[in-house]
Write a sequence for this structure.
């Protein structure tokens, strides 16, 4: 069974709301918002906003509740629209929290050309990453003992 959870916060709620606007522009704003509130397990969007002011544990996203609310108001919508919107916001949160995350992994950016014109290999790329992390931690005042950690 598909299960999707998302961190509960006002910023997350607003981001999902923006995503839904871009995917469902013909659905009335109040219907989108209320359907989102139902999908997060609340009786209304207002209740979801109030609960999001003091975030605790992630909430389960219920696509069927979203779909059912919109169906009652004359809109045929797949729950996958909500799931994709929530997943996009969740992934953006992960990327924001992990500044060294890239499509190549954590801390591995794209290979760069060396001064001689050759491409750096994986070992050289990793060494470049270690240096940049040490520099970042040093500049933030957390340089002590970092040489052993990396």
């Amino acid at each position: 069974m598909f299960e999707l959870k998302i961190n509960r916060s006002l910023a997350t709620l607003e981001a999902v709301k923006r995503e839904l606007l871009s995917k469902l522009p013909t659905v009335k704003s109040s219907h989108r918002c209320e359907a989102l509130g139902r999908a997060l397990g609340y009786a209304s969007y207002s209740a979801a906003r109030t609960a999001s002011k003091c975030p605790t544990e992630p909430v389960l996203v219920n696509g069927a509740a979203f779909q059912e609310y919109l169906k009652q108001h004359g809109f045929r919508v797949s729950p996958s629209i909500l799931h994709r919107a929530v997943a996009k916001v969740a992934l953006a949160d992960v990327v924001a929290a992990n500044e060294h995350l890239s499509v190549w992994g954590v801390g591995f950016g794209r290979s760069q050309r060396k001064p001689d014109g050759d491409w750096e290999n994986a070992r050289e790329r990793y060494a470049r990453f270690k240096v940049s992390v040490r520099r970042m931690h040093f500049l933030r005042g957390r340089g002590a003992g970092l040489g052993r950690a990396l």
